[in-house]
Amino acid sequence: MISEELLVEQLQSSKTQARAFEMLINAYKEKLYWHIRRIILNHDDTDDVLQNTFIKVFKNINKFKGDSKLYSWMYRIATNEALTFLKTKSRKLGITDAETQEKMISNLQSDVYFEGDKIELALQKAIATLPEKQKLVFNMKYYQELKYEEISEILETSVGALKASYHLAVKKVESFLKEN
What we know:
The protein has 180 residues and is an all-alpha fold. The chain has nine helices and no strands. It has helices at 4-11, 17-40, 43-60, 70-93, 97-108, 118-128, 132-143, 148-155, 159-179. Helix 1 packs across helix 2 and helix 3 crosses helix 4 (70-93). The protein starts with a helix and ends with a helix.
């Protein structure tokens, strides 16, 4: 893998953009897929959101100034795309965001792509009860093992606030799992 600076340079050049974009997709598609999947919970919807994410990255790469790391910028786009997708889905169905989460969790059990056991399903149910920010922080820290500094760049929030959110999320998840 080439350096991030060189990759950005190649992405912003019309001569090398196609090859560089292919390298970008190969480097980040799996990480972004799982990041989105933890928010959306459905394989097919995740694929759609992932595709939209890469389209946005491609269309906006010339606006990338390098103020953050490239992957942080892409994670922010992926996060926003996933949250927008969920809000749009809720609106289309005429239900609240919480009801959409409940519906997604119940659909998870019948999802042929879900490979988790009862414990993973219980964990997903617990995570679904968290407020949006805590859910994002928990998933990024627990599943993706991102550092607080990286999450801070992605969510544009202070490290202190993230630590507090993660701590609260862990307590809520533990409490949910003990009760259920």
